[in-house]
């Protein structure tokens, strides 16, 4: 077995095991110490499992990271690419993801019993109040100004915390980043399709590690065989005093046990492990369990009931100040590798073999629709390939023109040389004719004695 130092310096071992060592995730896990221990026997067992149950040779990087992070060797961990590109498109109808993902429709589609209170919506440039009545810009401004409290404004059709900012209303003025703004300024920033909600006072337990952000529980539910099942949860904490808790923006993920207790070690998107919050220094081992946790699990499952086209959903749930669950957002993708690392569980647990068999059979007969982002990425990849081929063809055509030109020049040169050769041959034949004429002439015969005498004298 190679030493840790050798492994870090030489990526050959990882490459031989099938790891994609040039990926950002691999580099993050390597630098974060999540690939220090390499168990080749476990990798072999993992590959055998996946070839047997799914018919594919997999990249074992996540399994090694999971082993290093949790201390558990679990072959059932789902590689991120397979989860995103193959399993989720079978489980979820991504033609419907934009519809279900519009935050302005949450209160209509999901109708959670408790959720963040939305006071104003902008849909395609038209304002709506809490009762879904359309209103003009002046009345929309009045709604903001009468809420003399902290507000949150965010786009309604984006993910990953994009565009989330805090508004403050005081003395009949709206403040954004300490500056007075009007609703027209907000329109300049957000254009259309955005929403304004009342800021939520979260439970002290969730606020403790990073009070500046609204920290959430990412709870995962799964509809399988006519039953909505709870899979796992991890908490997301913001950092650097940002109001967002988004993990892909550098935030922290900390697993939650089925009892509502927290694990002691968190992980960030750069692959670093944390026993203490990197901004506040809060010790995660000091966190109290989530109160009434069974209620949270049931709450997430109840929210799933109204979303019929998507079988796998990640819920952002807030622990309210009163210890009750509050719905915030629904997500249909997420960074699946970090889900399993943070939760310290394989995605589907004991259902893994059933799910893999089902997905494998579906993929044999149907081509699933990928997430819009992935479709766009593949289309861009296709366009780049076509552009590359076009450039290569253009280069080959140019080379062909150059070669034709060179060939023409060579043909011209060859023709010139042939003409010169023919001229020389003609001159040679002419010289031969003159020579034959001379040697057969009478004067040549008459002068023969003199030529012979001359040769003798020269000797």
TrEMBL record:
Residues 404-425 are annotated as: Disordered. Coiled coil: none annotated. CDD domains: bZIP. Residues 414-425 have a biased composition (Basic and acidic residues). Pfam families: ATPgrasp_ST (PF14397). Residues 88-351 form the Alpha-L-glutamate ligase-related protein ATP-grasp domain. This is Alpha-L-glutamate ligase-related protein ATP-grasp domain-containing protein. It comes from Salicibibacter cibi. The lineage of its organism: Bacteria, Bacillati, Bacillota, Bacilli, Bacillales.
């Amino acid at each position: 077995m190679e030493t840790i130092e050798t492994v870090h310096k030489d990526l050959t071992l990882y490459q031989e095991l099938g790891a994609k060592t040039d990926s950002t995730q691999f580099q993050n896990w390597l630098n974060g110490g999540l690939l220090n221990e390499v168990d080749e026997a476990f990798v072999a067992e993992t590959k055998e499992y996946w070839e047997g149950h799914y018919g594919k040779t997999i990249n074992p990087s996540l399994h090694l990271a999971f082993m290093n992070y949790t201390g558990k060797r679990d072959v059932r961990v789902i590689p991120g690419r397979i989860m995103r590109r193959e399993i989720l498109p079978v489980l979820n109808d991504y033609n419907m993801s934009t519809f279900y993902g519009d935050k302005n429709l949450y209160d209509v589609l999901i109708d959670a019993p408790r959720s963040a209170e939305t006071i104003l919506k902008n849909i395609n440039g038209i304002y709506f109040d809490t009762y879904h009545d359309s209103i003009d810009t002046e009345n929309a401004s009045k709604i903001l100004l009468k809420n003399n409290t902290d507000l949150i404004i965010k786009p309604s059709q984006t993910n990953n915390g994009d565009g989330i900012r805090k508004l403050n209303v005081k003395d009949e003025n709206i403040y954004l980043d300490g500056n007075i703004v009007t609703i027209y300024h907000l329109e300049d920033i957000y254009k259309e399709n955005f929403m304004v909600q009342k800021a939520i006072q979260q439970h002290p337990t969730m606020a403790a590690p990073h009070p500046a952000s609204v920290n959430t529980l990412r709870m995962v539910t799964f509809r399988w065989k006519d039953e909505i099942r709870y899979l796992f949860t991890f908490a997301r904490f913001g950092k650097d005093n940002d109001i967002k808790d988004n993990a892909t923006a550098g935030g922290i993920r900390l697993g939650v046990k089925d009892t509502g207790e927290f694990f002691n070690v968190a992980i960030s998107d750069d692959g670093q492990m944390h026993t203490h919050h990197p901004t506040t220094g809060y010790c995660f081992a000091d966190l109290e369990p989530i109160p009434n946790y069974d209620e949270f699990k049931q709450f997430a499952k109840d929210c799933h009931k109204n979303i019929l086209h998507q079988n796998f959903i990640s819920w952002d749930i807030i622990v309210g100040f009163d210890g009750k669950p509050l719905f915030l957002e629904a997500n249909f993708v997420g960074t699946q590798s970090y889900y399993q690392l943070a939760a310290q569980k394989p995605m589907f647990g004991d259902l893994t073999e059933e799910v893999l068999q089902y997905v494998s059979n579906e993929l044999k007969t149907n081509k699933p629709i990928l997430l819009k982002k992935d479709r766009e990425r593949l289309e861009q990849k296709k366009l780049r390939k076509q552009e590359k081929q076009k450039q290569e063809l253009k280069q080959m055509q140019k080379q062909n023109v150059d070669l034709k030109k060179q060939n023409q020049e060579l043909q011209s040169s060859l023709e010139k040389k042939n003409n010169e050769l023919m001229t020389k041959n003609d001159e040679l034949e002419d010289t031969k004719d003159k020579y034959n004429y001379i040697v057969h002439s009478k004067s040549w015969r008459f002068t023969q004695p003199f030529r012979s005498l001359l040769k003798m004298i020269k000797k």
